[in-house]
Amino acid sequence: MTRSRTSGLVAALLVSSLACATTRPPTLDTASAEYQLVSSDAGVKHLAGAELFEAQAALEKAEQASASGADEREVDHLTYVARQRSRIALVVAVGRAAEIIEQGIERQNPSLGE
Amino acid sequence: MGSAPPLPMRNAHRFLLCLSATFPLACATPPAPLVSIARAERAVEQAETGDALEHAQIELRSSRAKLVEARRALDDRRYEEARRLADEALVEAELAQATAESATRVEDALSASVRAELLRDEIDPLRREGGRSYDTISH
Hints:
The complex is a heterodimer. Chain A is an all-alpha fold. Chain A is built from 5 helices and no strands. Chain A starts with a helix and ends in a 6-residue tail after the last helix. By secondary structure, chain B is mainly alpha-helical. At the A-B interface, helix 5 of A face helix 5 of B.
């Protein structure tokens, strides 16, 4: 009886420790999906490579913090920063694409610049 | 019963005792995030001098609010919280600035496109007119 109670306790402890080890905030999955989406775009890669690199580094930092069981607030914070970095990469790429389009229009219509 | 250690030795013991008591405390307390707050302040100022007030109000407002909270947390010696808030204020200010710059570029491109179309509308009838005149002369 005592033996089965002990093994039950051990099993419960194991399950709870495994649950702790694998707890991953859902926002981190969202951040990862957003980064994948932004980084899979060839235009963003080409036009905002540096910003994309920063987004990747920020996401890796959040992933590492989560995997090492860091404080929940710290993981949430790093995840938030990573999401903003992906947005920055996207916004910068849109701006640079617009700049290229404007330059093209001006090349075709030289009198526009006068 | 052993005799008490000599005075210099006792002082050394006390010093070591103090050191061992303060060392974990020093390690447990994070440093004041002065650099993080200064970086966030610069980024917010930079965003404010750009077009962020016009094009990225929401991001800029959130960034400013987090910077205020970060300063408050610093005053209350909640250093971890102050660092997180300052880092979030920084990234939001950078997003505000990037959004504003991007919006300006998109507006410029659209404006160039519209002006090019207007120019074509002005030039094309003249070209057609010019073509007709040429035909009349040549016949």
